Amino acid sequence: MKKLRNQFPFLLIIVLAFYGLPFIDRESGMLILLILFPLVCFLVALVYGLKHSFNLVYSILVMALFIPTIFIFYNETASFYIGAYGLISIIGNLLGNLIRKIINRSTEV
What we know:
Blueprint: H1 2-24, H2 29-52, H3 56-72, H4 80-108
């Protein structure tokens, strides 16, 4: 339960991006799908990994949060992005965790 509580602020940012950005700019759907969402997923997962270490559940929740947007804003061809954003968040989370371990190792010396 504590891990889920730690994930909440990060998932809130993801929700705001997934559901807020398409409302702000409805004309730039491909820009949002190809550049902004991956950037947000990566950066938020990186910070999560830095603060709380790696957690696969976080990336699964990112994927689950994107699913309703397919039916709200896009069409079924956007289903591909579920896995893409999950993979991007896994990479960001792993990288953040790696940086965290390197920083912790250097401060122990």
